[in-house]
Amino acid sequence: MSIGASIFLLVVGAILTFAVDVKNTGGINLDTVGIILMVAGALGLVLSLLFWSSFSPYRRRSVGTYPEERVVEERRIERDYP
């Protein structure tokens, strides 16, 4: 789940929980649905941030993770041709 989708779920859940005041919904409790959406959005946001930082191509690498540099020297063999 992306960061945008997680924030969207948080917002929709908060609207259903705190802003919608419906007396009769036909067996569906909108407060419960809103809380479930907010929990799912918060969990998705936390996981997205954790995985985003671990797979980022711009992350910092600790010292010693780069391969050793090799110096390539060119040798020329001089031969005496008759």
Structural commentary:
It is a single chain. The protein has helices at residues 3-19, 30-54. 51% of the residues lie in helices and 0% in strands. It is mainly α. It is built from two helices and no strands. The radius of gyration is 29 Å and the shape is rod-shaped. The longest helix has 25 residues, at 30-54.
Determine the oligomeric state from the structure.
single chain
Separation, N- and C-terminal Cα atoms: 74 Å
Tell me the Rg in angstroms: 29 Å
Shape, principal axes of CA atoms? rod-shaped
* Structural class label: mainly alpha
**H and E order:** HH
Q: Could you name the key traits of this structure?
A:
2 helices, 82 residues, rod-shaped, mainly alpha
Question: Quick gist of this model?
Answer:
The protein is an all-alpha fold and 82 residues long.
Topology:
Layout: H1 3-19, H2 30-54
Helix pairs in contact: 1-2
